[in-house]
Amino acid sequence: MLRKSFLYMFFIIELNQALKNEINIFGPGLKPEEIVMPARYFYVNFTNINSLSYKPELNKNLVIDIYGRSKTSEHCRVWVNKLDRKDGTFIVRYKLYETCFDLSIHVYYKRKDVVQSPYKFKGPVYPDQCHCPDIDFEHWLKSYGCSNTYEQIHKDLKPYQDIDMTEKVKKIVQQYHQPESTSFCHYVVKENEIYRNCYGKHIGFNMFSDNILLALSRKVKLPDIELVINLGDWPLVHKGSEPLPVFSWCGSDETFDITMPTYDLTESALENMGRVTLDTLSVQSGAELAWDKREPRAVWRGRDSRAERLKLIDIARANPDLFNASLTNFFFFRDKEAQYGPKQPHISFFKFFDYKYQINIDGTVAAYRLPYLLAGGGTVLKQDSPYYEHFYKQLTPWEHFIPVKRDLSDLVDRVKWARENDDKAQLIAMNAKNFANEHLLPQHVICYHAVLFWEWSKLVKSKVHVEDNMTHVPQAAFECDCRSENRKIREDL
Prior knowledge:
Strand order of the largest sheet: 16-15-17-18-20
Family: Belongs to the KDELC family.
Structural class: alpha/beta
Main location: endoplasmic reticulum
Keywords: Endoplasmic reticulum, Glycoprotein, Glycosyltransferase, Signal, Transferase
Low-confidence stretches: 6-15, 49-54, 487-493
Distance between the termini: 68 Å
Largest sheet: 5 strands, parallel
Helix content: 25-40%
Radius of gyration: 25 Å
Number of domains: 3
Protein name: KDEL motif-containing protein 1-like
Catalytic activity: L-seryl-[EGF-like domain protein] + UDP-alpha-D-xylose = 3-O-(beta-D-xylosyl)-L-seryl-[EGF-like domain protein] + UDP + H(+); L-seryl-[EGF-like domain protein] + UDP-alpha-D-glucose = 3-O-(beta-D-glucosyl)-L-seryl-[EGF-like domain protein] + UDP + H(+)
Strand content: 15-25%
């Protein structure tokens, strides 16, 4: 009897050790003192366990507990969210609502701490609202886990050297200030305070450029810079004209605009676990069906913002076994609503992944849904386009997406290829998700902006000054005690 008990205990010890070796926990959320985000996140990856018979029980047996104390209470306010990607991996997000001390992150599997859990941090661990900037920009970039440079940034900034922004801003206003059709803001960052002067009739989108500048300036002392941010979708500075420095959310092969992450992707990063429900983290858990349970058809919904979208409806109607595509609104081609309607109601973006294939077709410019399609775990059929977002040049056809001609003439053949090569199509989907996790998550969006503004600051030779007519953009009021070492100049500088 004793021998049986001993063998059972030995088996349990060996099993627990095996589980530790086969569970991988990683991500920026495990560095909460250095990496401040609206919602911190990390991954829990069950590797070899994936194939075990109790795989459906992973979600049930994985428990996350995060707690700490505040300055005035035994408990600080933390919201924890576990996202099941239904492939043996999980994303854990957590949001702090106040400064926490003695923060503990417990990852339990079958009621036992796994790997190096608990992860403990003395603190203070700040919520994103804290205005506690690190004074050393390069140190912050490194501790935040940012890349040193990006190929797209290098390409975009190549035309500019020794810039006199006083002169350039005057030229930009003179050439592009057309109130009915263009809107942009001239921003100044001085002593880590944000100021702007906006031009145009429709300037409401300045909230997005305000928010990223404010978010960065809470984390790190930004260099003094001047920049002009385009608030419209279309890039402005066409090749053949003087390369005036305008920052835009969309670039094109025919323009000089300096590309930033789109306002949509940026908002999803800054509002993570807030009012935004669709982001590159949540979309990874939204699919309810495993790959082999999804319909082998290509899905698309959208408005009539480009002629190729009408052509897609013709193609879908001729091949209902391959496509589920409908228009949701008519604006640009209202005269064709009788032919291409009736318009259909929107469906949840997560329902796109009831299908194996998702179509990405330009709207007025690049379709800003691509980051979420890549992250969602389906196979993307991407239309060839002269427009691009900040990350497009890093994508490889047939590795991250299936390329489709601009006129959609090969779209039917591409869907047929995917159906006939299911393993390859699934691999493309997996590569796309991996790409999104390596380049398009909130940490990456924040880093890209930071590196872009840092590199831009090196090119401006003119003195940065705040004009009399500029509006100050203040930080939202939030009580926070910052560590003194963030406020003083480091002794080794």
